[in-house]
Specification:
This protein is an alpha/beta fold. The chain folds into two domains: 278 residues, Aldehyde Dehydrogenase, Chain A, domain 1 (3-Layer(aba) Sandwich), CATH 3.40.605.10; 191 residues, Aldehyde Dehydrogenase, Chain A, domain 2 (3-Layer(aba) Sandwich), CATH 3.40.309.10. The protein contains 15 helices and 23 strands. Strands 15-16-17-14-13-19-20 form a seven-stranded mixed β-sheet, with helices on both faces. A six-stranded mixed β-sheet has the order 10-9-8-11-12-22, sandwiched between helices. It has a three-stranded mixed β-sheet with strand order 1-5-4, covered by helices on one side. A hairpin with a 6-residue loop joins strand 6 and strand 7. Helix 1 crosses helix 7 and helix 9 crosses helix 10. The longest helix has 21 residues. The N and C termini lie far apart (58 Å).
Length: 499
């Protein structure tokens, strides 16, 4: 395909969009099929009979070509003035803003979330990219005094080289840009491997960078399996850093491979996030924040609240409000303006959610609300928002990441017990505490083992603030904000003599 032409042809939904989309890899400034010419199809999770896109099943050869192109482009890109790199990111953000409606439709068609959520994700992406564009001019060093006369000491940050950016399917535009934008701002080049099932959005990202004037080879896109693309990308000798968002199991494998090569990783992985409700005067207000934090994107968020740890005396009130909120959801195709809860991302994931619900019942928890697949004319992957009560901390549904619209309620008799249960998981990504007792709020901040803590609000992150976690939820520097440079640059110390 001519690199000057778009890789995607799609009309605005209001004028009758046409699917499936055909997409390709982008290597060394050219749109190309996989080297073996093999393809795969991705269905619309709201209507599996409709194909959202046809994409390439890439090979080791494609992966190697992309890395080599990125490596060849690094020297010139790293010497490009930082302000120019920032300007390119500002142009990208403007292009994304101009095409938000088309891209939101693609996200909804391939991922399933509501159009409102897709547009919200795009808005957040624009904010984060604009922030990062400004940061390109603020990758500063230090001047330090010397113990010796006539010696000047300074530190400076320099780009690493080729960065492997591996992103998940649940946030197919904001998560990749949390990797690509700071990598480019710092002067690195990138090989981008998206989740295969949301590769059409990934293609739009690269297309917009091409329109913004990014030089060839600086950003490369390879679409394919973890075996053919992800694993060899992580292990490639020219790759100098790996930034990954996904499951803790896959992240652990990447960490081991990278450690053998002594390269840095930035891993954002799973969560089993708790919302504590204790000594809280506004129970309804707390639930009003917990429910969207639990069920946004159909619960397919690493920062979703999936456990409510609640003072026993108010548990019945909390559950009543939860049921009322859950029963108000309108489940359906995300393209329908009335829909407030879209489908799960795939039939496999639907089966996983069903298996967790079955486990919860077998463990003795009470299925208070939901717990069933929603039948539809399109046979979409729809599932009811689900609440379990009578849950004990040792149950599987209380400890493992479900990654779906399932919320468990655990009663406690003391704030000490609430803290203990909140920490009773391998994960440490985010947590919330709803209380009017400032002593409890201080204890929550100091004692809960999580990277992002929210007092009297849901697990919402902001576009200029570091994002990351503790324990098995994360390894390496937090993304976004002032911490991004800690991964995307290396530090040099320079001693200079005046003689």
């Amino acid at each position: 395909m001519d690199s000057s032409k778009s890789s995607i042809s799609i009309k605005d939904h209001t004028s009758g969009s046409k699917f499936p989309i055909t997409i390709q890899n982008y290597i060394d400034g050219k749109w190309v099929p996989s080297s073996n010419n093999q393809t795969f199809q991705r269905e619309n999770p709201a209507n599996p009979a409709e194909i959202a896109f046809i994409g390439p099943s890439s090979t080791l050869q494609d992966t190697n070509s992309a890395v080599e192109a990125a490596n060849a482009a690094f020297s010139a890109w790293s010497r490009t003035p930082a302000t120019q790199r920032g300007d390119l990111l500002f142009r990208f953000a403007a292009l994304l803003d101009a095409e938000r409606d088309v891209i939101a439709e693609i996200i909804t068609k391939e991922q399933g979330k509501t159009l409102k959520e897709s547009l919200g994700e795009i808005n957040k992406t624009i904010s984060e990219v604009r922030y990062t564009a400004g940061e390109a001019s603020r990758i500063e060093g230090l001047t330090l005094p010397s113990e010796r006369a006539g010696i000047e000491i300074k530190t400076k940050r320099v780009p690493k080289g080729v960065i492997a950016a591996i992103s998940p399917w649940n946030f197919p535009i904001v998560t990749p840009l949390r990797k690509i934008a700071p990598a480019l701002a710092a002067g690195n080049t990138v090989v981008f491997k998206p989740a295969s099932i949301t590769a059409a959005t990934a293609t739009k990202i690269v297309e917009l960078f091409e329109k913004a004037g990014l030089p060839k080879g600086v950003l490369n896109l390879v679409i394919g399996s973890g075996r053919e693309v992800g694993t060899p990308l992580t292990g490639h000798p020219l790759v100098k850093g790996v930034t990954f968002t996904g499951s803790t199991g896959v992240g652990s494998t990447i960490y081991r491979v990278a450690a053998e090569r002594l390269i840095e990783t930035q891993l954002e992985m799973g969560g089993k996030n708790a919302g504590i409700v204790y000594d809280c005067k506004d129970i309804k207000g707390a639930v009003d924040q917990i429910v969207p934090a639990a069920f946004a994107a159909t619960g397919q968020r690493c920062t979703s609240i999936s456990r409510i740890v609640v003072e026993r005396s108010v548990m019945d009130r909390v559950v009543d409000y939860l049921k009322e909120k859950c029963e108000s959801y309108i489940i359906g195709d995300g393209m329908d303006a009335e829909t407030t809860l879209g489908p799960l991302v795939s039939s496999d994931h639907l089966e996983t959610i069903e298996s967790f619900v079955k486990i919860g019942v077998q463990e003795g928890a009470t299925l208070t609300c939901g717990g069933k697949r929603v039948q539809s004319a399109t046979n979409g992957y729809f599932y009811e928002p689900t609440i379990f009560t009578d849950v004990t901390p040792d149950m599987q549904i209380a400890k493992e990441e479900i990654f779906g619209p399932v919320l468990v309620v655990i009663p406690v008799d003391s704030f000490d017990e609430a803290i203990e249960i909140t920490n009773n998981t391998e994960y440490g990504l985010a947590a919330s505490c709803f209380t009017h007792n400032m002593e409890y709020a201080d204890r929550f901040v100091n004692e809960v083992e999580a990277g992002m803590l929210h007092v009297n609000n849901g697990t919402i992150s902001e576009s200029h603030v570091p994002f990351g976690g503790l324990k098995s939820s994360a390894v390496g520097a937090y993304s976004i904000g002032v911490t991004a440079k800690d991964f995307f640059t290396d530090l040099k110390v320079v001693y200079s003599s005046s003689k």
